[in-house]
Structure formats: C-alpha cells, structure tokens
User: Which sequence fits this backbone?
C-alpha cells in the first residue's frame, strides 16, 4: 500500500549544505480538448520549496507547431538537469514523440509522471524509454528522485519509481503520498500560464456540443484526490486513497485565484467533489460568509442529493453538475459496480431540474452485461425522463480498469501497445477499432453504436430553440432572437457559424454545416437545439443546395450518392428534400459501409474503375471529412465537374463570399476549393 506521509505546512528552501538544486523543465503535452495541467502545477509549487528551479511549458497554450518551436528554443537556450513530462494514457503517442524530440537535442534526464505511468508501467517504460517514471502522486516521489539525480545517487533507494538497471527496467514498489492535502502549497497556476489561459478564453463558449453566451472565464481547481468508488470502467491513475482538502483551504485558494485573474467561473476538477452533504453545505456557507460571487461546476453521485442541498448549491453559484448516469438498466449498473439504481438517477434528474441546475452526463453503451434488452430499457428510460441531451458514448476499456484486465484475459486485446496507440486517436478508435466486450456479434455491436450516435443528433432536435427573429450579418455570422422551450427565457445573440473559424476561413474537411448548436439557457440551465439550417447565413446555403437537388429531379438525372452517410444523415435529410432523386448508386471508401443499403441501393467501393462503370450520371457528394478524396477519384475517372454537386465545396465557397449562383451548377463551387 502507498505510504501516507504527514508534511509540515510549509517547507523552507533547501540549505546550501543540502542536495544541489535541479534545473527542471516541466512539460504538459497538448490534448485535443482544453486542459490546464493543475497536477503538474502542484508538483511545481512543491519542489520549488526545496530550491529546485522550474521552467514550465504548457503545450495546450500553443498550436502543435508553436509548442514544439518553444520546446526547441528552451532546450537550445537553457541547460536542464531534468525534464519532467506528465500525461494520461491517451497522450501515449504524443509523449513518445516528445521524448524522441528531446533525446535528439539534449542529455537531460527524462522523467515521466501522471496517469500514463500508473498502469502498464513496464510496457510504457520499454516503449517510450524515459530515464525514470514516477508512479502515483508526484510531489514526494519526484522530490526524492531529484535529490538522487542531482547527487548521482542510487535510484533503487527511491520508492515509487521505475528506473533502468542496464537494459532492464526495475520498479521500486509503492511510494509515499501526502496524508493531509492542506499541507501542500497552492499550485503554481501563475507559473503555468493561468493569465494566458484567460487570454485564450472567451466570455462566450461556442461549440456544437454546448454553447453558452455568458459563460465567463474559467479556472480549474481540485478539492480532493481519487475517488472512494471503483466502477469497472474507471481507473484513478494511481492516486491512491480518497483524500480531501478542507473546505476552508479550498475557499482560500479560490479567493487567491479571484484576486489574481479575471475569472467568473470555477471548475472543480475532482472525480467526486464530495461524498457527504455536510461538506458541500460547508462550501456554500463559506462562499456566502466571504461574499464570493462566481458560478461553479462539480461532479457528484446521484445517490447523494436532496432538494435542500441542490437549492443551496444553486444559491451559492452552482450552474451545472456532471453525473455518471451510464445506463437506465439496473442490470448494467450492477455489472458496472456503480452502486446506484435507475430509480436514483430518475430522482436526481427531477431534483436537479427543480433547482434549475444544468445536467451534464452520458450513457455508456457496451458493458459486458449489455444486451438488446438492456439497451431498449435504457432508451425507454431516456425518453421517459426527457434526457434528450444526455448523449451515448461507448465503453472503452482504458488500461488499469477492470474491463481492460478482462479484455486482455479474454484475448480481446492481444497487442497492448497497439491498443493504447489506437486510443490516442479516439475518433478513429470509436469508428474502426472498438473492443466489443458484449456477447453481441461485432457487426451488431458496431451497428448499435452507429444507431446510438445518430440517436444523439435526433434527440437534440426534440427540444428545438424557438427562433423568434434572425438575420445574416455576413458570410460567417447571424443575429438571432431565440426563446428557451423549457422556461420561456428570450435571448438575442450574435452567432458565428461554424465555430472555431480561423482568419475568416472555414475548415473544409469536416462534417460542415450539418451539426447545429446545443445552447444552454442562462435562466434554467437546460439545453435547446438550434439546427444549422435555422441560422440565417447557413440557411441560404441550404436553399442553394436544395435548388441544385431540385434541378436534378426536374431534369430526371440519374444520381450516384457519395458517401453512404451513416451518422448525421438522418438530421441532414430532415433539412433537405432528397426523396425525388433518381438514385442509381452509392459509393464509399469505408469498409464498414460497403455492401450496406443506402437510400435503396447497395453501397459499392469508391474507386476509379467503379466510377467509370457508372456511365453518364450525376454525382452528389454529401457532407464528408474525406470529400476531397472523393473529388480526386471522380477527377481521375474523368468525370466532368459539371456533373458533380459537392456540399463541402459549395458550403466553403459561400462562407468565403464566393458563392456560385444555382443556375451555374456546382462547377464554380468545386473549382473554388479544388
């Protein structure tokens, strides 16, 4: 077991007679979604108490190219003793690349930490080949390791690490953890660029999944470590026993943050904010006593709630709570070892809505106990409780979880390195490499997952925003007035579309123009959906594309569809009329779609030979991330651009204020992005 160690409240810097201070570069890899490395900031503040010099590099504050340019600059201009890198298993590929990059440029000792080291430790050691790995909490173990590195001592004497004994990796057993989290200094948020984090944030949050027009700027904190529960799909990354900061310490930290940065929202990163009501009420009381005004988010269990608590949280600024619903089937919840019931989930939904607090949660598909019957049970539960924005995700057997251990034992994961690499590209994993833990056939399992992802999109539309008025402001923006269907709140907003446009240019290789916005109402914190076609400047493109489809119908053209859309086709077909087309073929390059039925025809391979065999037909290229590949195949087969209608090309041309008139056909739109 990990040894819990009591610390002094503050430790003075190392004396001149102590170990030589190390010059340390601490690096946080870049993640797909926004992430602030609060764990690494804790490690930094702790080791700096002992005189070690820390240089931070938060790759999340840079583009990939700029991040590596900054890393190269630091390695070229400073002489580091140690380079510490932390990350989760999903950063395996990124960390491997980073270690290789560092090795080519300097001789500093490379130390890995974080969740990536806490499971499959030997595999990570042998594959990524750092000099050392810190397993479990980093503060005490990394401090001890730095002392050994600077003194050129024996690493085998440092508990909680992996090191190299010649060509053999060795582990030194469990290391110490901190008994009282309040003994830690506050994390080095300023050093790791919290000011830059604020600069990168907007007071609005615009994304397909969740759009907030008054989100404010957010700072993360932690109030506890680990979790007292052990669900089969979850792994606590070596964090050991569940421990908590005192609420006085948490609020002290928040006060310090609010005095330093212009934040209006606090995200409590804890896996579980609290397991008892008294602790949460204490937090709310302290905020009131100190006159602190901000909104906040936390994660709770559904079996901890009552109406008094939730109303108190709402009054203290809580605006949304993340719950682990996972399933509406008690059989699946029991298999997951969730220690909750569907009835408790239903009660939590009712109480949370009554308090006007938003719900952030998911259902998980693919537990070993999942069957068609349990899935049907969950779908009924979802409809009965109006959980239209509680989306379906797939169960993933992350390394360290009980599900992972079972998958390895059952032979479902035979190459563990390849599996971990596949998880680093979660989109590719979910569509091409999912591990089927159920008794369903692989074909049925994948088909159910595709259906559930499509159901997410359809469900969102069951609670549409009521558009009262709107006008296009330009090719990328509209102004709309919408009413919340849940509480009647009316809001007028300027809305860009699509989100994340860079320098006025639209990324063409995406499912562009199809996904709408899930908008969070500021009054009741429930979501409403705004379909893309209801946004005025986007609706014009839909009208243009529909005019082209109508022309094909009127001329009696024979049409081949590319690709055989799976997800998003349902909602796309709701906004356009495709029913009158004379469809004679469907082509796709994705193996899982070949041989399937799409719009009444069998899907064939998309290749030059197949295109040439189609004869004199019209091609409609539907929204697709690989649309440019389709256009390249059509061009190689000698297809006249006049016979191609491409959604992505038309959309991008319109967004760049280079629209082609409907009477001219799609040729100019194609050429605009060719």
Assistant:
């Amino acid at each position: 077991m990990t040894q819990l160690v009591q610390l002094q409240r503050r430790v003075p810097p190392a004396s001149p007679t102590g170990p030589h201070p190390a010059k340390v570069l601490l690096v946080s890899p870049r993640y797909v979604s926004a992430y602030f490395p609060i764990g690494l900031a804790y490690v930094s503040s702790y080791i700096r108490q002992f005189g070690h010099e820390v240089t931070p590099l938060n790759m999340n504050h840079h583009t990939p190219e700029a991040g590596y340019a900054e890393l190269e600059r630091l390695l070229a201009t400073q002489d580091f003793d140690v380079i510490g890198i932390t990350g989760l298993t999903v950063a395996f590929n990124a960390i491997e690349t980073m270690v290789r990059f560092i090795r080519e440029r300097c001789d500093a000792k490379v130390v890995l930490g974080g969740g990536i080291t806490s499971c499959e430790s030997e595999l990570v050691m042998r594959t990524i080949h750092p000099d050392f790995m810190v397993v479990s909490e980093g503060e005490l173990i990394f401090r001890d390791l730095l002392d050994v590195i600077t003194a050129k001592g024996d690493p085998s004497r440092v508990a909680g690490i992996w090191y190299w004994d010649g060509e053999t990796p060795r582990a030194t057993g469990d290391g110490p953890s901190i008994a009282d989290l309040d003994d830690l200094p506050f994390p080095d948020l300023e050093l790791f660029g919290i000011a830059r984090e604020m600069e990168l944030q907007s007071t609005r949050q615009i994304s397909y999944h969740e759009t907030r027009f008054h989100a404010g700027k957010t700072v993360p904190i932690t109030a506890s470590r680990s979790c007292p529960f052990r669900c089969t799909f979850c792994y606590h990354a070596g964090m050991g026993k569940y421990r908590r900061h005192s609420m006085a310490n948490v609020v002290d930290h928040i006060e310090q943050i609010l005095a330093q940065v212009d934040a209006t929202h606090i995200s409590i990163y804890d896996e579980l904010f609290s397991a008892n009501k008294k602790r949460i009420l204490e937090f709310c009381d302290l905020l009131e006593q100190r006159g602190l005004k901000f909104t906040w988010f936390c994660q709770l269990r559904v079996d901890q709630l009552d109406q008094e608590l939730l109303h108190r949280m709402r009054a203290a600024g809580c605006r949304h709570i993340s719950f682990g619903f996972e399933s509406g089937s008690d059989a699946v919840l029991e298999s997951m070892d969730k220690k909750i019931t569907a009835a408790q989930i239903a009660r939590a939904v009712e109480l949370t809505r009554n308090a006007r607090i938003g719900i952030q949660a998911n259902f998980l598909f693919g537990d070993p106990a999942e069957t068609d019957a349990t899935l049907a049970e969950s779908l009924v539960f979802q409809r009965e409780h109006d959980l239209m924005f509680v989306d379906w995700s797939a169960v993933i057997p992350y390394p360290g979880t009980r599900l992972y251990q079972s998958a390895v034992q059952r032979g479902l994961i035979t190459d563990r390195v390849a599996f971990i690499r596949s998880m680093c590209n979660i989109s590719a994993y979910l569509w091409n490499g999912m591990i089927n833990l159920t008794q369903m056939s692989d074909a049925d399992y994948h088909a159910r997952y595709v259906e559930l992802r499509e159901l997410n999109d359809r469900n969102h539309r069951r609670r549409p925003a009521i558009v009262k008025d709107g006008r296009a402001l330009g090719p990328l923006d509209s102004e709309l007035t919408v009413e919340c269907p849940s509480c009647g709140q009316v809001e007028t907003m300027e809305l860009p579309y699509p989100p994340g446009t860079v320098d006025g240019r639209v990324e063409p290789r995406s499912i562009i123009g199809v996904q709408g916005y899930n908008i969070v109402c500021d009054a009741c914190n429930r979501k409403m959906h705004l379909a893309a076609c209801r946004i005025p400047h986007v609706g014009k493109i839909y009208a243009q594309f529909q005019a082209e489809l109508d022309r094909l119908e009127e001329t009696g053209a024979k049409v081949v569809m590319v690709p055989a859309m799976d997800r998003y086709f349902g909602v796309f077909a709701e906004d356009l009329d495709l029913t009158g087309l004379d469809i004679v073929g469907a082509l796709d390059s994705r193996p899982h779609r070949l041989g399937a039925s799409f719009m009444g025809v069998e899907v064939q391979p998309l290749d030059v030979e197949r295109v040439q065999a189609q004869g004199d037909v019209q091609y409609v290229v539907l929204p697709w991330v690989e649309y440019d590949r389709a256009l390249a195949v059509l061009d190689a087969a000698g297809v006249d651009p006049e016979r191609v209608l491409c959604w992505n090309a038309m959309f991008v041309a319109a967004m760049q204020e280079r629209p082609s008139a409907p009477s001219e056909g799609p040729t100019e739109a194609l050429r605009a992005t060719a």
The mean pLDDT is 91. Residues 333 and 339 are 7 Å apart (CA to CA). The longest helix spans residues 442-460. The chain has 22 helices and 28 strands.
